[in-house]
Amino acid sequence: MQSNDKVAASWKQMETQSIEIMRTSIVAQPSSNYNGGPISITVQNDGQTNLSDFAEWDVIVQYESGGVSYLTYSESSSPGNNGWTVLGIYSSGETPAIFDPGVLDSGEQMILSVKLNPELSSGQSCRITISTPNGVKSQIQVNR
Q1: CATH number of 2-143
Q2: Residue 119 backbone class (left: φ over 0; alpha: ψ -120 to 50; beta: rest)
C-alpha cells in the first residue's frame, strides 16, 4: 500500500509541475543596438504564471567560438564579470510595477543587465539563453 501511495504522490507532483510549465512563457529581446558594456535584455512574461526567485534562474552564454559561460546572479544593480542582475520590473513601457514588487507578473516586463568578460568584440556575436526555475527558456542572439 505504501508503494502505491508513493507512486500516486509522485504522479500528482509530476502533473502539478507539468501544468506549471504549460502555463509559463517568457520572451526575451536584446537591446536593438549593442556597442559594448553591459547587455540590456527585456524579458516579457507571456504566460499565466507569476515568476520570481531570480537567483534560481539560469543565464547561459554561448560564444561563436564554442565557449560557454554560466552567468551568476547578483542582487546588485551592477553585476560583476560574467554576471547578471534584474534592473527593474515594469507593468508597461517605463512604468514600474507596483503590485507584487520583485515578482514578474503575467504581462509584465523585466530588464536584465548582463556583463560579459571578455566583452564581445566588433563583429562577434553570442547566444544567450534565459531559463526559469521550471525549465522554460528563451534564447536571443546578441551581435556587436
Answers
A1: 2.60.40
A2: beta
